[in-house]
Design a protein that fits this description.
- With 360 residues, this protein is mainly β.
- The chain has 3 helices and 23 strands.
- Strand 16 and strand 17 form a beta hairpin.
Length: 360
């Protein structure tokens, strides 16, 4: 916590320019505050925007690639476009191609393929988005998994605008990960009703294999603070706040779950996964079934492991209204924190190569 607010804040180096952010100016923020009731502050901020990609630059016409077939059981398929080879994506995330053999509890083998990670759009006039896909073959499940290159996130507020569609028997997971016992998840099971999501801190079972009730909660997908009839088949903003001793989940800005159980205590990476293994958790997808997870943007406010510093922030920037303007907004004051008053200087970001490559 900060000395002035009696709340410890781990502050590490600032990344001033968020990758895949097309804003021309970025405030000289020293730390960041996210929308919500908590007063947690973060030193780092990254915003990944997949909505306005240019097909010539990223090497994609936004048509989904063919489904994996029964002969493609080794995960050897190449990336679906040059976008995934470039530093703009490859410098921050990597797509997995590992295999997982079947077991007694998970009777369907999983094969991750880069062919299941691709760029798409609903129509020529609609925004572009990132898609992760899974489909069921007779002898295995073809799956997808991306994970951050950074593996030192240590407390974060993660927001993702996403939707899920497809056959029952899949799990769309968005989570921090250090180990199977140090993991915090936003999960959507396609076997669940469309208004249900899962908020989970691992481990979910004890050493005897018994379910730990407080590990996972069935939560409601809300449209906004006044409505509860949301659906994960629609675009929603999912949020996970990982704070010291406390995890909190939100949908469209509405808090639906709080946990003190299983809050991760180790530096972690961030992963997104579309998968199934035939287990009791995911269910067993029917052969020929397909399910997709579409993502318009990812927003990360975070601290990193390393030197821990107690210090004041002179310029606190608030992250809100992401859908319309992802640029952090400098606050003139913040509770319990000394904030510099007057004009906030801006850093002019010269990113000609990024704009040329990606702006539509």
């Amino acid at each position: 916590m900060l000395q002035t607010s009696r709340k410890l804040l781990y502050l590490l180096r600032l990344i001033a320019v968020a990758p895949l952010t097309f804003s021309a100016t970025v405030p000289n923020c020293e730390c960041y505050r996210v929308t919500g009731d908590n007063d947690a502050l973060f030193l780092g901020h990254q915003f990944y925007d997949f909505r306005t990609l240019n097909k010539e630059a990223v090497g994609s016409d936004f048509t989904p690639p063919p489904l994996i077939n029964a002969s493609q059981d080794r995960g050897l398929e190449p990336p679906t476009s040059s976008f995934f080879d470039k530093a703009l994506f490859g410098g921050y995330f990597t797509a997995a191609n590992w295999l997982k053999n079947a077991s007694e509890d998970a009777p369907i083998s999983m094969v991750n393929s880069q062919q299941n990670v691709y760029l798409a759009r609903d129509s020529p006039d609609s925004p572009t988005h990132l898609t992760l896909r899974t489909n069921r073959l007779p002898n295995f499940q073809s799956t997808s998994n991306i994970e951050s290159i950074e593996n030192g996130y240590f407390h974060a507020s993660i927001r993702i605008r996403a939707r899920v569609n497809g056959a029952a028997g899949a799990c769309a997971g968005m989570f921090t990960y250090f180990s199977d016992k140090q993991e915090s998840d936003i999960e959507i099971l396609t076997r669940d009703g469309h208004s249900t999501m899962r908020a989970t801190n691992q481990p979910g079972v004890d050493t005897e294999g018994k379910v730990i009730p407080e590990a996972s909660t069935k939560a409601t997908v809300t449209r906004d603070s006044n409505e509860t009839g949301g659906s994960w088949t629609d675009w929603n903003e999912y949020q996970l706040d990982w704070l010291p001793g406390h995890s909190e989940w939100f949908v469209n800005g509405v808090s639906n779950t709080n946990k003190s159980y299983g809050v991760p205590t180790e530096p972690s990476n961030f992963q997104i996964k579309m998968w199934s293994d035939g287990s009791a958790w995911t269910g067993n997808m029917t052969v020929g079934g397909v399910a997709t997870l579409d993502i318009e943007w990812i927003d990360l406010a975070y601290n990193r492991s390393g030197d821990k510093t107690e210090q004041s922030c002179k310029t606190v920037c608030k992250i809100d209204n992401i859908a319309n303007d992802p640029t952090p907004r400098a606050e003139s004051a913040a509770t319990g924190i000394r904030v510099q008053t007057g004009t906030v200087l801006s850093l002019i970001v010269t990113a000609f190569w990024m704009a040329t490559a990606l702006l539509a």
